[in-house]
Amino acid sequence: MRKKFEIKSHDGPGRIGKINDEITPKLFDKNELKIAPNQGSAHNVDREIAEFNVKETLRLAKENVEKCDVAVIQGSKYIDLRVNCLKNLEKIGYNGFIIANGDALLTNPKELVEIIVSLKKEAEKSSYFIFPFTEISFMPILTYMGIDGFLTDSANYYSHLNVLQTPTKAYDLNTYKIYENISQKELENKNIENMEFVIKEIHAHMKNKSLRNLVEERSGTTPQNISTLKILDRTQMDYLLEYTQLF
Fold first, then answer.
1. How far apart are CA 64 and CA 77, in angstroms?
2. Which of 10, 69, 175, 189 can pair with 243 through a Cys bridge, CB separation 3.0 to 4.6 Å?
3. 247 residues of the chain, pLDDT tens digit each
4. Which structural domains are found in the chain, ordered by start?
5. Is residue 218 within 8 Å of residue 167, measured between CB atoms?
């Protein structure tokens, strides 16, 4: 059931690829993916719980490999458990992966960088990664680190909170009356439209080898965003330079 993933070009660790006939980075609708059952947990849990959840996730993934094409990488905050989960899922036969606990990782830039870069370094080149939950302003830097797609679930999540997601800011419509009397479905559609715009923006920058410029522009949108870029530059320069064109 695995989908063929081909890398077409790089802009830093970020990559333009193709899954079947669709260009990545791309948006994924969760309902269109065949996601293997998994044992989830909170990000900050005791190691024993995280180990159990990884073991159960691998068991469920193996049992469902013939009918599923995407698996979930569990392991909570423990990098070695995350990597172990990835490698065993690849052995089972998966090449599409959702990184669990995305919402928690966005609030902890150090762990976000460590987990994504560690997974990317250990993964097969034919494996692709989907981030399950993201603020739109984070999409460029996540792509820069090597994420290949994003679930549209976050658009629905923010619409429940009455929050409008734009490329640079999240607006609480209870405070910022940009749209009044907007329905939840209309707000969800606007959030998806903005996600689609940023994907197009990312593609255009990657084709022009200027994704880093977009990442730096967006870095000032939130404290977590700028912290992520600073930690990435300080701790992972070799990883960033591996695919960066030198002039």
1. 25
2. 10
3. 578 899 999 999 999 999 988 999 999 999 989 999 999 989 999 999 999 999 999 999 999 999 999 999 999 999 999 999 999 999 999 999 999 999 999 999 999 999 999 999 999 999 999 999 899 999 999 999 999 999 999 999 999 999 999 999 999 999 999 998 999 999 999 999 999 999 999 999 999 999 999 999 999 999 999 999 999 999 999 999 887 655 4
4. 5-238 (3.20.20.105)
5. yes
